């Protein structure tokens, strides 16, 4: 029988990666399309020991219902780490634990967006955020991302025309572009937003995965009352436990709490306890250093292979962190077309169009380097080079 | 600074239990307000062994990102159990794993409701559903619940006036009333809905917690293409792992999948694996039998204490399952006022008003019996009897 679905379902984009899953799952395909961390870097034994400890010493409470805001020792750990790493004063009560940071985006949409509200995102922007916000039917506006962050002139101009509920951005090692905002850009964005009612939503999934240079201040430093930060253990500990968090001014967190409770009561208690125990018993900095060392080597290898295999008029970002490279072909080339040729060569990526709400981005593509071995990078980039030469030649 | 929140936040009711948490957390208070299963019945050791097995044998995949629909062996177990228990033919692809069944309600709201759409719920209705659906700003309509289910005359009449997207109900041991729909009511509801575009959302959180008599057919039996079922391991295994599921016709599940991905990508992988391993290695039926035996005894004890302590003109349901009794005081008595007196006696419950969207229910209250020891039931009902006598005398 025909079903009637809510109108929001018609405007919510599907996952590109899901659409090509049947193809990329073939064992002969090398996929740079996903956004997975390398499972060989998971601290499996340490997390097993943490799970064992929790089940032995706090089994009943780990298995019972709990509070919506999440486990206090975990929120305290996160608050302390903000203090240490970024000199941010965050109270544990200004933090709420979520099912991965993707859920933060859903809760932000729920709490802040009425249908038709203007929202600002980067161009290119994170597909998951576009999906999450789309469910609340906003009017998307975009700001171009350069090598050191958003175009602030465009930002001021778009904001003047479309007073947005918030500007959503990924200042550290952005997905998909790999761009990190310079400190000057951060200050300039804060100056522009300060005079408006627009909040800044800082998605910081990759801030701790920094290969070069040192961490730059959070926008919260410059805009304390107007910055919502979303964080995640997915890239630094494990994504399978779906542990993220949102940090925001108390008044916003209270609304997020109401929305979270209505959405799923609270996050997995056992997982919160396991992560907490793991963090108490292990050296997270040392673990992150291992991940960073490995990902830096993969980035460098992929860049050097691209230098050898791709035509010279192709540009590529050199991200200071994260998991992605952003490759731009010469004008007139379509990565949507390229993908078909690439799949014939058994290699996959995500075409740039998936990261644009306005149909742009067709000359660009996103390549993931975190979940590919050395051999896969060498072979995969070689195959992709062949596909590009077939496209342009 | 003043923040601007989405209008949906103004109409979403807060959790009553959260509001009185500070009071009920005092150690001297006996609380019948919550809806917690008894933690002494959790299979802690068996779940610990399951966690240990999963981390030892499938650590990397349990910690990695996974599919939105959830772990296939778990969906297969659920499908097989529908076949066994209720003779329902459900394909694993018609099941999607959620963060507890509360998330099913959020996803159903997302996928089916535009603002202003009419929605039908029971009177009294489950507060968590009212909260979840409120975020999608529907127009609530209600149908009175009698001792054997909804008033079908009222159902037909309300539906005629307000063609609703769906009718949400809890046919087995309803929360808050404890009522189980008779088979005749189930057939009558199906007959009424068959001629409309209204779906039936069957919340079956308590179906396996049946103390008396045998399971009645799901509405799916009578309305196969129009019934969405939500299920949960919270009451039969553990709520802390937040494991629920939604079962619906394929076309609806596809939309739910898009909404789930945008909302939080997928459910906790480790938890899905732990539950699956637990179910493979243990006798769920025997475990449920233990829970049922214990809860039946608690129900009977609470009913007998009520018989001794409460004035004779007070009525109380005798639920065939679940976790709650529904007590109705004589006309003119207010359980909102009673709660103040009860808290002075150090005993708590949820006043009936929390379960009404129209301000009704003030003579009723919900009492939870699953999470109270014998001693707490005896003492708590005695205290509540005193408070009632102070109110009516």
TrEMBL record, chains A, B:
Homodimer. It holds the Pfam family Aminotran_1_2. Residues 46-384 form the Aminotransferase class I/classII large domain. It comes from Methanoculleus taiwanensis. The keyword Transmembrane does not apply. The lineage of its organism: Archaea, Methanobacteriati, Methanobacteriota, Stenosarchaea group, Methanomicrobia. Its cofactor is pyridoxal 5'-phosphate. One of its GO terms (molecular function) is pyridoxal phosphate binding. Keywords: Aminotransferase, Pyridoxal phosphate, Transferase. PANTHER family: AMINOTRANSFERASE (PTHR42790), KYNURENINE_ALPHA-AMINOADIPATE AMINOTRANSFERASE, MITOCHONDRIAL (PTHR42790:SF19). Belongs to the class-I pyridoxal-phosphate-dependent aminotransferase family. SUPFAM superfamilies: PLP-dependent transferases. The keyword Ribosomal protein does not apply. GO terms for biological process: alpha-amino acid metabolic process. This is Aspartate aminotransferase.
């Amino acid at each position: 029988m025909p079903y009637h679905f809510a109108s929001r379902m018609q405007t919510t984009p599907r996952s590109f990666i899901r659409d090509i899953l049947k193809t990329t799952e073939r064992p002969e395909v090398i996929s740079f399309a996903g956004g997975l961390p390398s499972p060989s870097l998971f601290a499996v034994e340490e997390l097993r020991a943490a799970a064992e400890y929790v089940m032995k010493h706090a089994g009943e409470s780990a298995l019972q219902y709990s509070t919506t805001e999440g486990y206090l020792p975990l929120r305290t750990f996160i608050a302390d780490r903000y203090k240490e790493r970024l000199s941010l004063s965050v109270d544990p009560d200004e933090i709420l634990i979520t099912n991965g940071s993707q859920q933060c985006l859903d809760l932000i949409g729920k709490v802040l967006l009425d249908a038709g509200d203007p929202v600002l995102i980067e161009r290119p922007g994170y597909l998951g955020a576009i999906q999450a916000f789309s469910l609340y039917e906003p009017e998307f506006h975009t700001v171009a991302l350069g090598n050191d962050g958003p175009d602030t002139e465009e930002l001021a101009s778009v904001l003047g025309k479309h007073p947005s509920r918030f500007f959503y951005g990924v200042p550290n090692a952005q997905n998909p572009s790999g761009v990190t905002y310079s400190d000057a850009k951060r200050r300039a964005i804060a100056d522009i937003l300060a005079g408006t009612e627009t909040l800044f939503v800082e998605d910081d999934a990759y801030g701790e995965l920094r290969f070069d240079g040192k961490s730059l201040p959070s926008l919260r430093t410059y805009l304390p009352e107007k910055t919502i930060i979303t964080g995640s253990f997915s890239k630094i500990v494990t994504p399978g436990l779906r542990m993220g968090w949102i940090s925001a001014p108390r008044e916003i967190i209270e609304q997020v709490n109401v929305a979270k409770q209505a959405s799923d009561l609270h996050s997995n208690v056992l997982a919160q306890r396991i992560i907490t125990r793991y963090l108490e018993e292990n050296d997270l900095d040392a673990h992150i250093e291992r991940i960073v060392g490995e990902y830096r080597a993969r980035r460098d290898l992929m860049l050097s292979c691209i230098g050898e295999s791709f035509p010279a008029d192709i540009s590529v970002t050199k991200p200071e962190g994260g998991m992605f490279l952003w490759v731009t072909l010469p004008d007139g080339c379509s990565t949507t077309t390229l993908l078909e040729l690439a799949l014939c060569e058994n290699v996959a990526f995500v075409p740039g169009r998936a990261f644009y709400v306005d149909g742009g981005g067709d000359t660009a593509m996103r390549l993931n380097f975190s979940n590919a071995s050395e051999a896969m990078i060498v072979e995969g980039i070689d195959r992709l080079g062949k596909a590009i030469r077939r496209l342009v030649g």
